From TrEMBL:
This is FAD-dependent monooxygenase. It holds the Pfam family FAD_binding_3. Residues 24-58 form the FAD-binding domain. Keywords: FAD, Flavoprotein, Monooxygenase, Oxidoreductase. InterPro entries: FAD-bd, FAD/NAD-bd_sf. It comes from Pseudonocardia tropica. One of its GO terms (molecular function) is monooxygenase activity. PANTHER family: FAD DEPENDENT OXIDOREDUCTASE DOMAIN-CONTAINING PROTEIN, MONOOXYGENASE ASQM-RELATED. Signal peptide: none annotated.
């Protein structure tokens, strides 16, 4: 049992997925609970909702197709984001991070700068945000 003031940090396995169930699916943390160290959980939940709603609206009398198309998009996206979150967790709780947090943040900022240079939009590449939280 956790000491007073301690809160467990739960996560599903990176790449978690399930066999198709006609007309039934999950979105958000229920589908891909990850550590907060990529800053993507809420963003992913909103993307899930938008993607699923768009698919259902396209063929509202058939939920099997929309659910399958949504899951085909959501599973790889969630795996990518969960991997980033797991890396972030490792990074910010490693012995090296505790020894030199400035170096860790400098490295993260350099990655953001590099991604921004590549996307040509001044650092608005979502992948850059995903990596740094
Ligand atoms: C410390 C921390 C920092 C975070 N920082 C970020 C961040 O910077 N950026 C980001 O994008 N994400 C962040 N997240 C993740 C983000 O908060 C979650 O990914 C997001 O809230 C998931 O939304 P959701 O709607 O799927 O689930 P939730 O927000 O958990 O919503 C589920 C809702 O269902 C309700 N509920 C549960 N069981 C029942 C029931 N039986 N009947 C009725 N209602 C029920 C719950 O009370 C809750 O209101 C962070 C998370 C944590 C813990």
């Amino acid at each position: 049992m956790a000491e007073q003031g301690e809160r467990p940090l739960e996560m599903l396995p990176v790449g978690h997925r399930w066999d198709p169930v006609p007309g039934v699916t999950l979105i958000g943390d229920a589908a891909h609970l990850m550590s907060p160290f990529s800053g993507q959980g809420a963003n992913s939940a909103m993307l899930d909702a938008a993607d699923l709603a768009r698919e259902v609206a396209a063929t509202p009398h058939d939920l099997t197709g929309p659910v399958a198309r949504y899951e085909a998009t959501m599973f790889p996206r969630a795996e990518h984001d969960a991997a980033g979150a797991a890396q972030g967790l490792e990074r910010f709780f490693s012995a090296e991070a505790a020894a030199d947090p400035v170096a860790v943040f400098a490295e993260a900022m350099a990655e953001v700068g590099a991604a921004g240079a590549h996307d040509g939009a001044g650092g608005t590449d979502p992948a850059a945000t995903r990596r740094t939280g």
